[in-house]
Amino acid sequence: MSGRTIADRYELATILGQGGMGQVWTAYDRRLDRRVAVKLLRPDRVAGPTGSDAADELRRRFVRECRVTAQVDHPGLVTVHDAGSDGDDLYLVMQYVEGADLADHLAEQDPYPWPWAVAVAAQLCAVLCAVHAVPIVHRDLKPGNVMVRPDGTVTVLDLGVASVLDTDTTRLTHTGSPIGSPAYMAPEQAMGGAVGPYTDLYALGVLLHELVSGDVPFAGSTALGVLHRHLYEAPVPVRQKRPEAPVALEALVLRLLAKDPQDRPASAQEVYEELAPLLPKHGAPAGPLDPTRPFLRPHAPWPDRAATPAPVPAPATFAAPPSAFATTPPALGAPPSFTPPPAVHPYQATPARPTTPPPGRLDVARAVDEVKKLLGEGRITQAVDILGATLPAAAAEHGEHSPVVRILRKQYAATLMDDGQYRRALPELRRLADDRTAEAGPADTQALQFRYDAAQCLEQLGEAGAALVEYRAVLPYYENAYGPITSDPGRALDIRHRIGQLLLAVGDHTAGRAQLQALLYDAERTYGPHHPLPVDLRRLLSHQRDVRGG
Fold first, then answer.
1. Taking a C-beta distance cutoff of 8 angstroms, is the pair 401, 435 a contact?
2. Which one is catalytic: 89, 101, 104, 140?
3. CA 152 vs CA 44, 169, 507, 532: distances in Å
4. Which contiguous run of DSSP H or E holds residue 426?
5. 146-172 in b/e burial notation, b at 16+ Cβ within 10 A?
6. With 0-12 CB in 10 A as exposed, 13-18 as middle and 19+ as buried, what is 375?
7. What CA–CA distance (Å, rounded) separates 499 from 505?
8. How far apart are alpha carbons 457 and 477 in whole angstroms?
9. How far apart are CA 216 and CA 144, in angstroms?
10. Residue 487 and residue 489: Cα distance in Å, rounded?
11. What is the gyration radius of the CA atoms in the chain, in angstroms?
12. Which domains are present in the chain?
């Protein structure tokens, strides 16, 4: 395949690695004359033998996830240059960098200095704060998806890729395997439950445990055995292997590895604040690939040179694994004085981008036509900006409760959800639901739809408990409003499916399995045994039995 040109622009050169779902290549960008890394994914291998519909859905998810990922602006994240499809492949183009992935970095140090571990984790916390604010869940945080550059900065790779591969809410591939790496997989992810920021924090705990102690907390000869240990065994405290590690660091690792997500730290920001006192505050970096460097000499050039420097050899270039391509500006880790932005409560709206309504009388129809055109062209972010500017102006001109404002608000909320901006969509949906309920009552179809969409936002934001409350509140209306389950079961079955996954996510495995087992019976009765829903439920329940049995 060497010499193949992707999208008439990216000429593949050398393969870096490959797996069951795709390959990673070095390539040359002909237009800008630069080296890049190209990741190729095969939709048919991910979606399985279910036909072209599943592959087409994966392509749509891929484009959407790339667009959502592009919203995250942080120097610790790989920069995506381009994405699309070429023939049977989906492609992702990123800047190629020199450095070592964290797995190689760890292997070269025996033992890995605990201050280095703290510095790596602190930089990862700064990245996760930005990622979770979107919100995005990485789902596959592990040493192979983290690069350490020669200047010591850490870069996270493959953001959004695991979400694309997760083609259904069961969190399983068509082979029945959960998305992610077993050694770093949180209990709720191992059970096939809903994932959230708390899932990434567990993976961070596994990674930190490995850096400090030299081993992952749970290992085994089979993937199922490892997942079983994640669910039922307590991790060995790191100071049993590294007594020189600080007590506070050991306590933090154990909290990150809590089985119940509610017992873990509330956010990556909270983890950073606990790591901050352990970060180095003076001294000189040990050399290239020292992850404490961004804290010892923040924003300093690399390498440090005298006024008249002697020639120095270039740092070694490490072969990158399949996911090892990234970019980040020099020495931009989070220094000890850095405080990530405070987490926004999911019921609060993130301030919209500054926009200025057009002067003079507002032409709502014209704005709506422009939005429809942009949405037809797939330019969702621009459509969001226009709606965000139009809505307050329309409310001032027509009144907050006018039909035109209601229509605009509904379109705004729907477009925000399409753009993955769940934090901004949630308050709009709350307002729509409240207004509609006041007018037509709680059983009104449209009011229930708004509440259902709000529950979806909460689920995407990682607020599993709040999402459970909302789904449970609307479920009786759907079951009663649409008659017996055999007449129009779609929405009720979907809500029950989400409730089951969220119960698994919050650690209530018994209730979650009971919910899914009852759902399987009703889904088979409604759709037949070969429908995708009962097929996926049987696969998920079988996987859970295997994990419980070890």
1. yes
2. 140
3. 38, 37, 37, 47
4. helix 422-440
5. bbbbbbbbbbbbbbbbbbbbbbbbbbb
6. middle
7. 10
8. 20
9. 13
10. 6
11. 25
12. 5-95 (3.30.200.20), 100-296 (1.10.510.10), 347-457 (1.25.40.10), 463-550 (no CATH)
pTM: 0.75
Q: Which two tokens stand for residue 368?
A: 């709506």
Per-residue pLDDT of the chain (550 residues; tens, 9 = 90+): 667 899 999 999 888 777 656 788 888 888 888 888 898 887 665 545 455 566 677 777 777 777 777 778 888 988 888 888 888 788 889 878 778 889 999 999 989 999 999 999 999 999 999 988 888 888 889 998 899 999 999 999 877 665 554 433 334 444 445 566 899 999 998 888 888 899 999 999 999 999 999 999 999 888 889 999 999 999 999 999 999 999 999 999 999 999 999 999 999 999 999 999 999 987 788 888 899 988 988 877 766 544 434 444 333 333 333 333 333 333 333 333 333 333 333 333 334 444 444 444 557 778 888 888 888 877 787 888 889 888 888 888 888 888 888 989 999 999 899 888 899 999 999 999 999 999 999 988 899 999 999 999 999 888 999 999 999 999 988 886 544 443 456 889 999 999 999 999 888 999 999 999 999 999 998 889 999 899 989 988 988 888 887 6
Dihedral angle sign, alpha carbons of residues 255, 259, 262, 266: positive
CB proximity list for 104: less than 8 A, separation 6 or greater: 318
140 is catalytic: yes
Write out the two tokens for 395. 């409310």
